[in-house]
Amino acid sequence: MNRYRDHILGKITEKDINNQVLISGWVYNIRDHGGVIFVDLRDESGVIQLVSNDEKIFDNLTRESVIKVTGKVRKRNEEDYNNHIKTGTIEVLVNSLEILSKAPNELPFEIMTSTNVNEELRLKYRYLDLRNEKVHNNIIFRSEVIKFLREKMNSLGFTEIQTPILTASSPEGARDYVVPSRKYHGKFYALPQAPQIFKQLLMVSGFDKYFQIAPCFRDEDARSDRTPGEFYQLDFEMAFAEDKDVYEVAEEILYDTFTKFSKKQVSPKPFKKITYKEAMLKYGTDKPDLRNPLEIIDLTDILKDTTFKPFQKSTIRGIKVDNISSKPNSWFNELVEYANSIKMPGIGYISLEEDGSFKGPIDKFLTEEERNNLIKKADLKIGSVLFFIADRKELKASTNAGLIRSELGRKLEIIDKNKFEFCFIVDFPMYEFDEELDKYVFTHNPFSMPQGGMDSLLNEKVEDILAYQYDVVVNGVELSSGAVRNHDIEIMKKAFSIAGYDEEELKTKFKALYNAFHFGAPPHAGMAPGIDRMIMLLKDEPNIREVIPFPMNSSAQDVMMSSPSELSEQQLREVHIKIR
Question: H or E segment at 275?
Answer without folding.
Answer: strand 272-275
